[in-house]
Amino acid sequence: MGKVVPSLKVLERPQSLGDRVYLTLRDYLRMQRVPSGQPLQESALAAQLGVSRTPVREALARLASEGLLDSDGRGFVVPTLSEADIEDIYELRLMLEPEALRQVATRVRDRKQFAPLREELQVMTAADTANDATAFMEANYRYRTAWIALVPNRRLVRAIELYADHVRYLRSLTLGDREARAVVLKGLRRLAAALSAGDGETAAAAMRDHLLEAKRILRESISLRNSGS
User: Fold this and answer.
1) For residue 11, pLDDT beyond 50
2) How many whole angstroms separate alpha carbon 166 and alpha carbon 14?
């Protein structure tokens, strides 16, 4: 029997086709490409992606199991969230995200790692001044990606990303409004300052307040949309 070579490492397996299709479709939903209630056609998606229907079917079922799609037994649609859904989602986010920011503030020693947050705040400020809602949303997403990358507990990160994904496609309802953007900027500036200062309690409180404001604005926007105003 041959000797084991101690310096060899287990080779990383390439991402499966099913995982690639799943991640592609999840990003597609994140970018608000599909309106609520619109069916997703398995065959059309497979043709667009250049794959068979099997990995698409598996990806859609996986997204449905995470609550990002609804299934009626015949197909999949982007769900229309009710006020009760919003309450449930934000209840979970309020449990998870303040603690994540507390960890980031107290465990990240190199304050240079917070530079991307300040940079994206500048981009958001410029986009808001130009009334460019799309650029604002893109910078807002990058800001979030930057702080999530610093969370040490990766299981916590996965839970945060799942529940944030449920409402991400509704951001176009809120961030197109200048008053809503002003509230968002104020909250994110406070959060960035707390992180830079290494103040875990203030960072957690800033995220808690930010989420409560986001929930309020989202509920008001949904109420206006449903009333046809």
Assistant:
1) no
2) 28
Contact residues for 38 (Cβ-Cβ < 8 A; gap 6+):
77, 78
Using alpha carbons only, how large is the chain's radius of gyration in Å? 20
CATH for 17-77 (3.40.50.12650, 1.10.10.10, 3.40.630.30, 3.40.1380.10): 1.10.10.10
pLDDT of amino acid 147:
96
E strands, the chain, are 39-40, 70-71, 76-77
- Topology, domain 83-227: Four Helix Bundle (Hemerythrin (Met), subunit A) (1.20.120)
Of 131, 129, 108, the closest CA to residue 197 belongs to 108
What pLDDT shows up at residue 116?
95
CA distance linking residue 171 with residue 30, whole number of Å:
10
Mean pLDDT on 159-183: 79
Reported confidence tier of residue 175, pLDDT bands at 50, 70, 90: confident
Separation of alpha carbons 200 and 37, rounded Å: 40
